[in-house]
Structure to design on (1263 residues):
């Protein structure tokens, strides 16, 4: 089996070619105008290096930030928005709130559809799905007139309560497809059938906005791959970490927004399987952000909510909300490019602003003069200036020191090395706190976890963060620097459906529930059905439940089909057990309510448990090592440290911190107090000495 | 300022402490029943020294609670001496004068012990769905009408829940299960905070929080002093008149900036009100100091030290320092207007940082129906809505956005599930934002009708229907708010009134005021506003001196002539 995985990121395009377990990887600069160019160049290069003919490739797996970039840069299609008459301003009004209490100067992201391109349709459905105002022909004719005069490429339709009764939205779609076949139509009842009109509209608008572009791109990409001789099927990585056909991706392209980071979660799942770890914390750090994800029992945490285009970086509530299934990862403004500064109280602060790749950290010598995390890492001795990013960029220590001195010497009286160690300590604490908070929000105790670290910056910071959150074991997989692309190879084909449906448990009629769930199964099989022959499906059901009167629900897993007689007692028991687990007590006098359903259908393409089995650590003749230095926080001075070349380390090699293990795309830092070991599959293990 | 040895460690611990109180708040939100807590973030959580000084608080929360709770723990220590606290205790109160200003807010305080010694208190507060009495609105004649009042009392004694206290509370509220649930969620939040604090003490080998709190207070005080020293020393005076319920409330403020401190003294016609819009001092202080801190020292975290750099004063017994047993249920009506008054003082000191006046107090839609004799259930629903905020330096005001309250609106589709009503419209209100070089945020138009054809009641309490938000520095006033029935039958902005089953209630929250000369606004921005329907063509010409062609382009010569002409003074006056 030969599989090609490609991950297009904002700066780099990563590739991984898997030939029956042997992995070749590559990293190219992303070609922003025509992203397929870098993919094709990289693929050609990898195939040549591997001696594989294009026709031999069995599967192409592709992840891309195209949808996200189109939204952030407002380069999507000319999109119109149709809602119930009187409510088209919902995408301006949002939640009427401020996401930051003390900053008077906040701004909201601009809606994707400007006000002149919005149309209020005369119709109304109530909360129970009853038609209050029927949709008549005249109203549709008015819509036709509006579309004829505004000429949008794409149309988003979100009518009030369409999650409860989709008839009017479907009628609009039929009408528009007949009259304006060239307009792409996105319906909220398909994209996000959930109560809450602002989020549903925002998600539907985003889908409509990116759809023509994404469709064009995939068509182009597939054509170019075919022209190159690759006739393998192409699967797309969705935000939930699963793969989908190009057709599914083209229907709901808004589900692509977290494509790349989701690959990291798949990598973590495969590592969890490889070592039988039931509590794994995934830590992925790149140039601008770090991402943390929890993987329990070999399954990443999922969420139903995401935000794009945040005006206040990383601040919840400052972006456009998207109700899509995503891998639940917390994203922190802490990457190699994050800038350090001194705040009003004389405290050292890092980020969320990033120097990015232009002008980049001071040490790049591209004109950046503000001290970044990368500058600190260089001054602290963690980075080999000649080996950064595969030797593409030679780092300049003097510039890094000058940048640190300029910001920290005068106000705080810190030498560059002291400033660098303080800056690193603060950014590590920020990441540790974010990881801890994320675990708490899930009701988990983070100290029970093992960490897997990847991405260009992950292995540099992992051990110190692990120390701070009480994790004793850190794993750095092979090819950690292109972790997301490697993770794509481990991803299953998957599709999640979430739907609002209100039901008091006391009034429940099991056969009606069954009919509704059967409808969900039918909708899901449209997406995963044609792959069903390739593997045994892994089906997951959850009921969204709460005590009537609460606003937040919890997810209660259950089996379907169920025994229908005792449905009520059975669901009550399941709910109470889960509530007890999360909050420590149940409230026996209150009625229980179901507010929705979640269905996930997954098909594994490769067995994540054996994915790493074929791999071996390289057997080199001799271990390459070079002298280096490490900054000791307690001593406030440098001490000697060894730098090892990762690809020359045999299975069973052991070392002790302070030390560095350097490879093509990243460096693993082994701090004092940690032992380090490589295993027979080439993984590095860091363990806190006891 | 130099970076002392150990500073970094203390800075890290400070950060950790902030994440501890954030966990406390998140636990509270996830388990609460009250819609104002869970949907709107109407809560507060923090950690205090054993002598009642707040060390850190969660950033999640709304200003009214946050700052008023800062004082509350001192009352608990006065009521229950330090020696009488035991491990596993939890105490509570909803006394407006010892808590956060009205009976609906419950404050819960939990001590944390380490090696047998009390090292900290956790306190949290949230808004209960019901507290008995007359229910929502300002109609009570005194605080006794407004519901049950529980003085500072232990509800959990060394780990044992006091069923008597709980029983009395449950017997006096309309929704005992939800109220008990909310009390439990406050207890759970404090418990989580306490557990995390002890883990943190273990990790950093801390016997107590003394050194850390001293560091936090010292840094915060220094941070505040430096921020205040950037404000020109002086005495700044301003006035603000509100509609009030039965009569206008004409307030004044005198702000003194000197010696690294800011003092605000309120005066004017502050006679107490016979209705529930009196404000206990803790709430006056909370919103006034919040207003100051939005402009001065906003990056300094809230704690005892940073809060004490700003002092607030109001005459005892006045409407801004109401005394027991004045009715205070609707304290927000005046309290949430105080930032605008404070801004007017600061506009003289630091004009380039201050926005024009906005809609201010929330324009909540509070609807009720008693249970019918025919078996239909009653309801009591609260939907948060807001007008526009004032124009800002360099930025327009925010359309339909809550300020100073930190709450968020509930989606219409969720609101319609909680009550048998039907929204007919919710749209931005054209020409409601005050004209200016930067424009005030737009208000909105909201129409609500009965879904089942039966009448319901609205408890109206709408400010700024008579007194518009005022422009700043040549900017024009925002459009005042209105409330009316679709049928044209009379409806007052203040008080409980019936909405007939075949009618529709139309609520139009105010627009924010403008800032700077509207004739100086970039004509391209005016054109964009007209294209978006935020400003009408007529208003563009009248208020901004911008003439647009039929094709919606700026008519440059006509605009230049109009802007230079004699109309200018009339328009920008």
């Amino acid at each position: 089996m030969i599989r090609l995985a490609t991950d297009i990121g904002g700066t780099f395009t990563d590739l991984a070619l898997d030939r029956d377990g042997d992995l070749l990887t590559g990293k190219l600069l992303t070609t922003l105008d025509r992203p397929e160019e870098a993919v094709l160049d990289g693929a050609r290069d990898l195939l040549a290096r591997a001696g594989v003919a294009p026709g031999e490739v069995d599967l192409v797996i592709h992840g891309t930030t195209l949808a996200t970039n189109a939204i952030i840069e407002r380069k999507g299609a000319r999109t119109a928005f149709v809602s119930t008459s009187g409510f088209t301003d919902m995408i301006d009004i949002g939640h009427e709130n401020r996401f930051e209490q003390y900053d008077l100067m906040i701004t909201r992201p601009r809606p994707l559809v400007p006000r002149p391109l919005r149309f209020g349709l005369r119709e109304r459905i109530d909360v129970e799905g009853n038609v209050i105002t029927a949709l008549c022909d005249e109203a549709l004719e008015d819509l036709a007139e509006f579309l004829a005069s505004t000429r949008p490429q794409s149309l988003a339709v979100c009518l009030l309560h369409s999650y409860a009764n989709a008839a009017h939205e479907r009628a609009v779609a039929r009408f528009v497809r007949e009259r304006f076949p060239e307009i792409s139509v996105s319906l909220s009842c398909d994209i996000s059938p959930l109560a809450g009109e602002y989020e549903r509209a925002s998600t539907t608008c985003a889908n409509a906005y990116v759809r023509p572009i994404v469709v064009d791109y995939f068509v182009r990409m597939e054509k170019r791959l075919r022209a190159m001789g690759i006739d393998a099927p192409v699967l797309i990585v969705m935000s939930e970490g699963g793969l989908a056909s190009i057709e599914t991706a083209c229907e709901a392209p808004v589900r692509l927004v977290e494509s790349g980071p989701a690959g990291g979660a798949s990598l973590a799942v495969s590592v969890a399987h490889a070592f039988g770890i039931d509590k794994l914390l995934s830590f992925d750090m790149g140039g601008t952000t770090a991402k943390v994800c929890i993987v329990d029992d070999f399954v990443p945490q999922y969420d139903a909510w995401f935000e794009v285009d945040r005006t206040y970086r990383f601040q919840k509530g400052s972006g456009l909300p998207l109700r899509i299934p995503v891998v639940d990862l917390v994203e922190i403004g802490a990457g190699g490019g994050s800038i350090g500064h001194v705040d009003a109280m004389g405290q050292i602060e890092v980020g969320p602003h990033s120097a990015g790749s232009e002008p980049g950290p001071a040490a790049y010598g591209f004109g950046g003069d503000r001290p970044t995390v990368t500058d600190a890492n260089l001054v602290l001795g963690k980075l080999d200036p000649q080996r950064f990013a595969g030797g593409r960029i030679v780092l300049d220590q003097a510039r890094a020191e000058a940048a640190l001195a300029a910001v920290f010497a005068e106000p705080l009286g810190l030498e560059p090395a002291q400033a660098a160690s303080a800056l690193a300590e603060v950014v590590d604490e920020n990441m540790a706190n974010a990881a801890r908070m994320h675990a708490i929000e899930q009701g988990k105790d983070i100290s029970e976890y093992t960490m897997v670290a990847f991405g260009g910056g992950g292995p540099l910071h992992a051990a110190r963060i692990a120390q701070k959150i009480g994790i004793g074991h850190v794993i750095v997989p092979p090819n950690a620097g292109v972790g997301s692309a490697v993770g794509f190879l481990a991803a299953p084909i998957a599709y999640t459906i979430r739907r609002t449906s209100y039901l008091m448990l006391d009034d429940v009629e099991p056969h009606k529930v069954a009919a509704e769930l059967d409808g969900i199964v039918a909708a899901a099989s449209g997406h995963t059905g044609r792959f069903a022959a390739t593997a045994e499906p892994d089906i997951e059901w959850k009921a969204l439940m709460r005590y009537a009167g609460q606003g937040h629900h919890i997810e209660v897993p259950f089996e379907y089909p169920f025994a229908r007689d005792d449905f009520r007692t059975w669901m009550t028991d399941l709910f109470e057990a889960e509530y007890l687990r999360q909050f420590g007590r149940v409230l026996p006098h209150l009625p229980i309510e179901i507010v929705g359903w979640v269905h996930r259908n997954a098909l594994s393409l490769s067995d994540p448990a054996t994915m790493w089995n074929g791999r071996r650590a390289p057997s080199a003749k001799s271990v390459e090592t070079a002298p280096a230095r490490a900054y000791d926080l307690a001593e406030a001075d440098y001490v000697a440290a060894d730098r090892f070349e990762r690809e020359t380390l045999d299975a069973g090699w052991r070392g002790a911190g302070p030390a560095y293990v350097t490879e093509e795309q990243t460096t693993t830092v082994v701090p004092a107090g940690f032992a380090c070991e490589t295993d027979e599959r080439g993984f590095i293990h860091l363990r806190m000495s006891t | 300022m130099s970076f002392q040895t150990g500073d970094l460690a203390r800075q890290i611990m400070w950060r950790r402490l902030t994440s501890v109180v954030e966990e406390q708040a998140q636990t509270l939100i996830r388990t609460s029943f009250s819609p104002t807590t869970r949907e709107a973030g109407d809560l507060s959580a923090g950690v205090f020294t054993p002598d009642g000084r707040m060390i850190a608080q969660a950033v999640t929360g709304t200003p009214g609670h946050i700052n008023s709770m800062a004082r509350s723990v001192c009352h608990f220590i006065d009521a229950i001496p330090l020696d009488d606290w035991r491990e596993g205790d939890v105490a509570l109160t909803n006394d407006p004068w010892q808590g956060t200003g009205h009976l609906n807010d419950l404050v819960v305080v939990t001590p944390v012990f380490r090696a047998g010694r009390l090292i900290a208190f956790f306190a949290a507060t949230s808004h209960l769905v019901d507290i008995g009495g007359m229910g929502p609105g300002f109609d009570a004649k005194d605080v006794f009408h407004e519901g049950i009042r529980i003085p500072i009392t232990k509800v959990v004694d060394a780990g044992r829940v006091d069923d008597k206290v709980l029983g009395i509370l449950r017997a006096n509220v309309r929704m005992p299960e939800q109220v008990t649930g909310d009390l439990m969620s406050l207890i759970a939040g404090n418990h989580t905070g306490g557990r995390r604090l002890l883990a943190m003490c273990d990790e950093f080998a801390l016997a107590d929080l003394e050194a850390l709190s001293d560091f936090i207070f010292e840094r915060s005080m220094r941070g505040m002093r430096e921020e205040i020293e950037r404000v020109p020393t002086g005495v700044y005076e301003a006035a603000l008149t509100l509609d009030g319920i039965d009569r206008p409330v004409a307030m004044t403020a005198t702000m003194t900036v000197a010696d690294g401190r800011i003092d605000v003294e309120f005066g004017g016609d502050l006679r107490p009100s016979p209705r529930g819009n009196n404000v206990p001092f803790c709430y006056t202080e909370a919103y006034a100091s919040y207003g100051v801190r939005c402009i001065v020292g906003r990056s300094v975290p809230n704690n005892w030290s940073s809060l004490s750099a700003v002092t607030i004063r109001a005459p005892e017994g006045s409407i801004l320092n109401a005394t027991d047993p004045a009715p205070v249920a609707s304290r927000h009506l005046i309290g949430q207007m105080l930032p605008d008054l404070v801004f007017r003082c600061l506009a003289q000191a630091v004009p380039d940082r201050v926005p024009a006046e906005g809609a201010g107090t929330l324009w909540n839609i509070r609807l009720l129906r008693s249970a019918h004799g025919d078996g239909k259930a009653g309801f009591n629903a609260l939907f948060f809505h807001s007008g526009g905020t004032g124009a800002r330096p360099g930025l327009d005001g925010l359309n339909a956005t809550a300020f100073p309250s930190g709450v968020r609106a509930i989606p219409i589709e969720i609101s319609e599930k909680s009550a048998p009503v039907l929204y007919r419209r919710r749209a931005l209100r054209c020409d409601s934002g005050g004209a200016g070089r930067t424009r005030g945020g737009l208000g909105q138009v909201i129409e609500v009708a009965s879904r089942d054809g039966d009448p319901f009641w609205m408890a109206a309490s709408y400010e700024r229907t008579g007194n518009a938000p005022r422009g700043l520095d040549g900017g024009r006033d925002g459009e005042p708010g209105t409330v009316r029935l679709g049928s044209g039958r009379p409806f007052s902005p203040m008080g409980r009134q019936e909405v007939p089953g075949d009618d529709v209630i139309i609520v139009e929250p105010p627009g924010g005021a403008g800032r700077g000369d509207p004739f100086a606004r970039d004509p391209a921005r005016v054109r964009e506003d007209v294209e978006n329907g935020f400003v009408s063509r007529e208003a563009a010409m009248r208020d901004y001196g911008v003439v647009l062609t039929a094709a919606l382009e700026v008519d440059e010569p006509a605009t230049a002539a109009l802007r230079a002409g004699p109309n200018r003074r009339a328009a920008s006056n």
Summary: Chain B touches chain A through 85 residues (CB under 8 Å). Residues 569-573 of chain B have pLDDT under 50 and may be disordered. The longest strand of chain B covers residues 117-127. Chain B has three domains: 7-221, 355-516, 519-573.
